[in-house]
Design goal:
single chain; about 80 residues; mainly alpha; Non-ribosomal Peptide Synthetase Peptidyl Carrier Protein, Chain A; globular
Length: about 80
């Protein structure tokens, strides 16, 4: 059974908590806000992307559009698109 949008979003937030140990940070980021603007450093984004590969069972394409990596919403939409 495939995950719903809400479940994927929660898993992404959970990965942020696991990686950075700050539930307030992960819980305080609005879904549509740029992760960079929210304070996630580029090294943190790379860690999140690797964790997402493991959690969702896919590999990022080398030519993924930068906009896909922008926010929790855009990351969630990408995972959903891969599953359909």
């Amino acid at each position: 059974m495939s995950d719903t949008e809400s479940e994927i979003r929660q898993r992404v937030r959970g990965l942020l908590v696991e990686l950075f140990g700050d539930e307030r940070f992960a819980g305080g980021i609005p879904d549509s806000v740029s992760l960079r603007e929210a304070g996630l450093p580029s090294t943190g984004l790379v860690s999140l992307l690797v964790a997402m590969e493991d959690a969702f069972g896919f590999e990022w394409d080398d030519d993924v559009e930068p906009e896909v990596l922008r926010s929790i919403d855009s990351l969630t939409r990408h995972v959903l698109a891969l599953r359909h």
